[in-house]
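Retry 2 of 3 after timeout on previous attempt. Resubmitting structure tokens to design endpoint.
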């Protein structure tokens, strides 16, 4: 019951999204299983350290957990223990001083501009309602850099055509305005013109789906992340790209990378991506490093061929 109360608090007070709550529940379930016969409320710091060590080594035939996965699980435990201490469910916080294992941050998988163009060009050949929907999804994703969960759950009321923006409610309930390109608005308009014809037939199902920009007859009322990811891989295959390299997250990375390559400011990209902390966006600094190096090589007077200093004597 304490886990349920914790998740209720995270939802009501922190505005945690459904996906975040589900991840917390899974991680705390894993902790509970690994700590047995101890419980989440009785485990000591030593018990928690033992579990982390076991996860790192892959004991009992289980594969070792990556540092990022273990860090996420520890974060969930830290949040839970703080809640338990605050609510008086236990006197101490055994996770307080535990440090998460550090993982090297991998560079984001990328797509070139040519690859994105190939994907969009192939999508444009399908003028059926499903094709128009896919084109709208792609254009919004690449033009706005949305998270896939933000994209598929868009509501029609979030469109602000007069401002040229979408109003996005991201992680933690934080809102941001995301401007779209004209091609993205054109693709969106083409989809909206046929959208009503794709609404589910059943009254209850139609009512559930009606608010969403990309409705579906599923229980969520909108296109799922999993379905969109599969459609994207199918499109990539048809466009002659390697499906395993293409995903909604890769397109989000392409959005950020191509902006920075074009001269965008890192802080602006942080705002557009909806990152709460600039440190999250700094994974893209390799793009800035390359751009700044090229700038110095092209603009600095001493980097030019046959540059001569004032103190040199010309023979």
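Retry 2 succeeded. Sequence:
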């Amino acid at each position: 019951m304490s886990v349920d109360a914790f998740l209720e608090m995270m939802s009501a007070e922190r505005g945690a999204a459904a996906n975040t709550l589900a991840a917390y529940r899974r991680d705390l379930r894993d902790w509970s299983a690994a700590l047995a016969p101890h419980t989440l409320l009785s485990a000591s710091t030593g018990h928690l350290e033992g579990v982390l060590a076991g996860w790192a080594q892959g004991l009992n035939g289980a594969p070792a957990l990556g540092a990022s996965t273990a860090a996420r699980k520890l974060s969930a435990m830290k949040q839970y223990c703080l809640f338990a201490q605050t609510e008086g469910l236990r006197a101490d916080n055994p996770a307080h001083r535990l440090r998460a294992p550090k993982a090297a941050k991998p560079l984001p998988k990328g797509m070139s501009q040519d690859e994105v163009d190939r994907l969009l060009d192939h999508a444009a050949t399908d003028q059926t309602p499903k094709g128009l929907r896919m084109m709208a999804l792609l254009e919004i994703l690449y033009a706005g850099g949305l998270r896939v969960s933000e994209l598929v759950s868009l509501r029609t009321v979030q469109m602000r055509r007069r401002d040229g923006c979408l109003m996005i409610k991201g992680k933690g309930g934080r809102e941001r305005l995301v401007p779209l390109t004209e091609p993205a608005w054109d693709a969106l308009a083409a989809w909206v013109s046929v959208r009503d014809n794709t609404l589910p037939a059943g009254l209850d199902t139609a009512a559930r789906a009606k608010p969403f920009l990309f409705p579906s007859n599923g229980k969520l009322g909108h296109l799922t992340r999993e379905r969109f990811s599969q459609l994207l891989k199918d499109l990539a295959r048809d466009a002659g790209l390697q499906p395993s390299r293409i995903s909604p997250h890769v397109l989000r990375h392409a959005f950020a990378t191509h902006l920075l390559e074009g001269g965008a400011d890192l802080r602006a990209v942080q705002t557009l991506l909806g990152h709460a902390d600039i440190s999250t966006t700094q994974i893209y600094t390799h793009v800035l490093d390359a751009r700044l190096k090229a700038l110095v090589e092209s603009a600095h007077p001493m980097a030019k061929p046959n540059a001569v200093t004032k103190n040199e004597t010309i023979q």
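Attempt log closed. The domain at 113-294 is CATH 1.10.443.10 (hpI Integrase; Chain A).
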